[in-house]
Structure prediction request, 199 residues.
Amino acid sequence: MRHFLSAAYRICGFEHHIGKITTTNRVVNVDVFPMGIDYNKYAALPSVSELADETMNIGNLGKGKKIIISLDRLDYTKGIPQRIQAFARFLDLHPEYIGLVTLVLVVIPSRSQVTQYRDLKKTLNTLVSEVNSTYGSFGWIPIHYLYRNLLHTELLALYQVADIALITPLRDGMNLVAKEYIASKNDTGKGVLILSEMT
Prediction:
């Protein structure tokens, strides 16, 4: 906030008084608004009946397997195609993990009317299909791909059963998924958060 007020003065000549800048025709309030999550919304466990169905369904995905989750809105900055390719490379380099680890890839729809985003979605569909057909078997699908919004209970269940949260954007300001995942792990304390240096 201090840097912004200083820049407003140095660049535009606007002085401030206790965080208020008077411009030519209005007063602008400047303040600090940290981003975060409602910790209690993720840390307080819902009743067993609320989570029972979601946890059972999601837990069945990884029965006897490790679950990696990836949750992002559809956007080029998130590095989703690269993440899928990295997972395929991991399976290629470490075939001993084939059948033992599942990536649950959740992509939240975004800007579906924009051609580039529709093309990105097609790319994701193709990459997921290639990985699943190359490495999958009748008893195991490497990538479970969901292109939709999740209910809060589904999200909590996914966070709770996930062994790893893989958050690897190419560019990101503040990724709240990392905070949500950590907050949801307060009951067991078990889970690994993998972040790219650009998160």
DSSP finds seven helices and eight strands in the chain.
